Amino acid sequence: MALAAAATVTGLRLAPLSIPASYILRTCTSHALLAAPVSFSRPRRSGCDAVVRCGKRTGKRRYPSEKKRLERRHKELLHQAAPEEGSPDRESGYWRLSKLAVPASDDPGKDFTGVSPALLQAIAKAIKFPVASMLPEEAFSVIRKSFDARKVLKAAQFIYTVDMDVKKLLDMEPRTWDFIARLEPKLGVIEYMPDEKLVNDLISILSVNKNGSDDEVEIRDTINNGSIHSEPKKPRVAVIGSGPSGLFASLVLGELGAEVTLLERGQAVEQRGRDIGALAVRRILQSESNFCFGEVLLESMYLCSVFLLQVTIRFNTRVDDLIVEDGQVKGIVVSDTKLHPGSVNQKLPFDAVVLAVGHSARDTYSMLCKHNVDLSPKSFAVGLRIEHPQELINSIQYSELAAEVQKGRGRIPVADYKIVKSVGEGDAENNVNATEHSRGCYSFCMCPGGQVVLTSTNPSELCINGMSFSRRASKWANSALVVTVSSHDFGLFQSHGPLAGVEFQREYERRAAAMGGGNFVVPAQCVTDFISNKLSVTTLPPSSYRLGVRPSKLHELFPPYITEALQQSIIMIEKEMPGFVSKEALLHGVETRTSSPLQISRDGETYESTSLQGLYPIGEGAGYAGGILSAAVDGMYCGFALAKQLSLFHGDIESFLGKAQKQTSFVKY
Ligand SMILES: Cc1cc2nc3c(=O)[nH]c(=O)nc-3n(C[C@H](O)[C@H](O)[C@H](O)COP(=O)(O)OP(=O)(O)OC[C@H]3O[C@@H](n4cnc5c(N)ncnc54)[C@H](O)[C@@H]3O)c2cc1C
């Protein structure tokens, strides 16, 4: 049975449409639906008629903003991706169900990643299936689970993303077919994925795209047992730095057929762990193996696959210079960081050099200046790290639920927070310069159940950061509170040209080292004193920082515009999080390396430096990333872009990776 309907849009009359019978059933109660024999009976091989939904068109929609246009495009794509309602193609594939909310009181807790009865309830609601207990757990897998305890909610809840395996679901509970058949895609909430999408990860993309590329590369002759063989010549690429950006660039380039050498000034992860231990316990700072330099455990997972590719990895190898001929990079000069300074350098020829050195390679920045590489100062943020007892943050954020945190062993996750404030805005309507005088102040790298750590790379400069172990079991919660600074704040350091921001950082790191009194002791001040511009206590509350804290006038460390912005924002935070300003809250100085203080100009398509051919600046150090994920993604895109230039890859990167985000240097992780 079909109904004829006329859909009308302002100014536009659509042809009558036929609506499938099952649509009428939508008005029935859900229990009636289960019993209804007429709707979408399986197997059904003929397609059903197209369905068009029409919204009232308003003036605004006739001239939609870019955002709305994109949203609409996404929705169209979403509908195109899902097989038509009722079509047999819906009998397989996966539906990703997101934003499934389960009340915290009904959930087994943060460590449970199975499918609980409460989650089945949420799934049933999403797919409009009336009897949750009939849904087989085996058809669902949890992809993501997070906790939402915002005060605007009536009660705290866990939020799930779940993949629904349609074939399994229909095999185990055929009565779900009606509901799958008419499931309507919704952007970011209910999305269809055909089977192939699941294996469409980076490695599969690479293996598909590298096929057929070998015949395009140059041929070189090699001599083997006296006879001459012709082999495709692999372009040689140096990747400097084994952080996430360097690793992902190496992975892509290696998979696509380049001969990659990955050079890392620091130690491999095992020795780096020992060096960091010696720093935390015996105050021994290794200038080449510390919190900023060297391989990290998380990254070594990726290294495993890069080993598989026979990418040559050289630890303890610092790149000191570039070999430049006729405006093009032809190679690099390296030294062994375990040997004494001044020991013999080695020259290595390469066809291209990927620069993935992170934000603390100040010597590398100076070397780039020597070669007149285009660098420009970039905004970043500086400030102090605040630490509270974790139990205090739990109770501010969760109220009575805080009792269930139990140092990371309980049902409820250890509480964190994320704060963004804008201070000094004034009256924007009457003051045209208001935005010029306002400053962003935000929490950065909040570490629940964590500790404050030393991230200096030089003993005369002191800077800190924070970290948590996976259990988040420590007694403390710490987070940086930082204020945005930009090139017009670096006026005093203009003589350093593009390195003005680096010198700005260095200045406050030196001041902090002096305030702490040396030996990596950190200057610290109670937050109550900091906001009152005084130092009243000589005995500070305990701190997680292991090398010692010294009572100091942190309110005198930074220029007034930074101190005042921090003070104002702390007072604003107290209004939202009563208890944040407390005698137990301790500020530590200084947090300066939130992101790179400069940007190395590069071409948006090729990723090549705009001033030096053959150089590919990527990741956080080049000013194109601000965290592990954005650095890895930048490395991946650069890998494809460079492979394209080396004729190792011929596809359209964005067609399968999506459009590259160009503004990721200020990500607040
Ligand atoms: C304590 C701490 C905690 C952090 N926590 C988080 C977090 O929770 N989440 C998050 O997203 N981010 C976090 N970050 C930031 C994150 O680590 C960086 O954003 C990210 O690693 C940047 O990646 P990258 O590849 O651009 O550079 P990096 O990871 O910095 O890697 C650069 C590499 O290049 C090497 N190198 C530098 N110069 C040379 C040279 N001349 N020759 C050879 N090798 C060289 C360095 O030794 C280094 O290993 C944290 C950082 C620190 C210090």
UniProtKB/TrEMBL annotation:
Protein's recorded name: FAD-binding domain-containing protein
Domain of life assignment: Eukaryota
Any Pfam family: FAD_binding_3
Gene3D superfamilies cross-referenced by the UniProt entry: 3.30.70.2700, FAD/NAD(P)-binding domain
Domain FAD-dependent protein C-terminal, chain residue ranges per copy: 379-594
One GO MF term: FAD binding
Domain (FAD-binding): residue spans on this chain: 236-274
Classification via InterPro entries: FAD-bd (IPR002938), FAD-binding_protein (IPR028348), FAD-depend_C (IPR049516), FAD/NAD-bd_sf (IPR036188)
Gene designation: ga04663
